[in-house]
Design goal:
alpha/beta; Rossmann fold; 5-stranded parallel beta sheet; about 50% helix; about 15% strand; globular; binds zinc ion
Length: about 220
Amino acid sequence: MTKDLIILGAPGAGKGTLAVDLCPRLGIKHISTGDLLREVIVSGSPLGQEINGYVKSGALVPDDLIGQMIKDTLNSADCKNGVLLDGFPRTIPQAEMLEKIMTDLGRPISAVFYLSVELDRVIRRLVNRVSCQKCGKPYHLINLPPKQSGVCDACGGALIQREDDKEETIRKRFATFIEKTQPLIDFYQKQNLLVEIKADDDPQKTLAVVLKYLAE
Ligand SMILES: [Zn+2]
């Protein structure tokens, strides 16, 4: 049976890791809307050209074009076993549009996995990430510290923290995520599709919960 899934999760919740582990096992396609937009634009199709017009002018791509893009993708051969939608829907109108698309295709959404995390744990994990300014080698100040503080083992370059990993940035992104995503969580909860997974610890544990749920 087709498995069409949605994944929701705050930045740092491990959505990417889960997608990489899960999709090959189920033979389904990971659809990240951002990647898909880029692919469609590169393809130069009439839809791609229309979307590119919006992207180039810095405008938001209208929902109906994104809907058309997702519908076309769902109809392609590599999505026939199912998909894991990542980054879509983001709003209630998009969720309603998706529901209509899936109903039209006879492929109702099987489940919506919400990877929930505690902000403090995300902060603890991310604020300790640094990388070499010169060669890009990643370090973690607790789990994988450099031999000499602030200096790259490989090339002697300075270790820096990415803007995205600063505590204030993490807090801001997290608050924005919750504010935007809560309506979707409520929407899918009402439809009995929401599966919340506490994704604070081990990615393998998250994967196990998802696989167990899908096997039931
Ligand atoms: Zn280096």
